[in-house]
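Before our next group meeting I need something from you. Please put the record directly below this note.
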Amino acid sequence: MPATIITDRVLVTDHSHWEVFLKPQELIDGGVTDVILKAGSGLTIDSSFQKNGTNVANFSKYLRLHAYWWDDPLVSGNVQADFAAQALKKSGLPVLSLWGDMEQWWADWNKWMAARMGKLPWSGVPVFKPWALDSHCKSFAEALTKVWPVTGLYTGRGYITTYAPSMKSWLGSYKIWFASYGRQPSVATKMTWQELKSNWLPEYDPIFKDTGIVKENIVGHQFTGDRCLLPGGYQDILGLTRKAMDVSVFQRSFMEQLGEVGSVGPIEPPVDNNLPPAGTPYIFLGSHLWVRSLPNETTARLIDSLTKDQRVVVVEIQGDWARLDKPAGWVRLSWLTKL
């Protein structure tokens, strides 16, 4: 059956430290519009994030930049989210969205590595209890939405149904970047971008049955997993040897509404210059929004927050800042919707 979820799509690649050198122009020539870089995992920043991010940012007129953070269940979800946000801010890179990568089921990295090297049977690798994994993933997802303007979750059906099936009770609240390899080369294959687009683009929808994921929230579909040796990603600093690349398609409207290509730092929603009078009721449609003591983000204290579908009344407007009556404090007016 043809793809019905992500139809008007853009081509997206994701990279980590395994690709030590990127050639953004080759990605652009291949039709890629967005790049998602691994920013880190646990409490460790990916060794290639700053270098690859700077490289991509130099082509910001043509490539939008995003990041993902590998969620390590051995580290507190709240602590990881805070660390990830601070790492992105310190980088100074124009990161438009931050994705929580949820795929780790093992509770011991040393034993997992030993199993990968064939020194230990996979049955000897400890697995998180389903309830513990569910609880951790939920806390990490919730924390992520509080520290970055645009967030989502990367995961796959096998991970959810096998290791934490109760995740389906809350996954429907999040934008999803879904891993589903319904058709890809059987082994790593060298190809051109045109060959990828002619032969391997997904003409099928990812299967999300029993995951709790809402169809309308699937905005990205990763359809290859380390199988396509494409121009743009290399495993040596000279750019001579290609590294098999993960490629996704994303909903065009989702990516394009994140902000203009080349904006610096966390995205800010556009300012509406046709402001309604103070005293107008509004509603907040996002998942979380901090209420601050002052109309700025540098010296203001965080004093409260708004949650999804919360209604407020604006009593004063200063530029893109709005003072609320209850809770009493300031928020970005552009995150509110006039009723």
